[in-house]
Amino acid sequence: MNALPTVLTIGYENAELYAFLDTLAAHGVTLLVDTRERAQSRRKGYSKTALAAALTERGIGYRHLRSLGTPPALRKAYRLDKDFAAMKAGYTLHLATQTDALEELGGLAARERVCLLCYEADARECHRSLITERLQKMGFAEAVEDLTVPGR
After folding, report:
1. Domain-by-domain residue ranges, the chain?
2. Which CATH architecture fits 6-146?
3. What's the pTM?
4. Where on the tree of life does the source sit, at the highest rank (predicted)?
5. Which pLDDT does position 141 carry in this prediction?
6. Which residues contact 86 (CB under 8 A, 6 or more apart)?
7. Average pLDDT of the chain?
C-alpha cells in the first residue's frame, strides 16, 4: 500500500511572482491546483492564462478546479464582515456537494506533488484549509504543508 501524500497549499497575497514560482519549484511542486472560483486577479501574472504560462516555463502543470472555489455570495459576505467562522460554515456546506472534484483532486495528489492555490497568505483564513481538511478526512492526504513565499 502506498503512503498517502502531503498536500501543499500556497496563497499569493502580496507575493512577487518570481518568488512565488521559486517557492513552488523549491518544494518540488509538479502541479498547481487553482482553487479560486474565478481564476482572475488584479495582480499581474496571477490570472489563469498568465499563471499557467509562467508555471509551464518552470515545468509545473496547472489545473483549475473551479467548483472548489468559494461561491460568490460567500466570498462577498466574507469581504464585508471578515467573519471566517460564518464563511467556513457556508463553504463546508458547499464542499459537501463537491465529491467529484474532491475525488479528482485526491487522484491528482496521488500522482503529482500538488499545491493548492488561493489568494490569502494565511491558509487559516482561506477556504483551501477546509479543502485539505476534507481531503484528509476522505483518506486522500496524510498531511498538509502551507508554503510561505519569502519577502512578503
Report:
1. 6-146
2. 3-Layer(aba) Sandwich (3.40)
3. 0.94
4. Bacteria
5. 96
6. 77, 78
7. 94
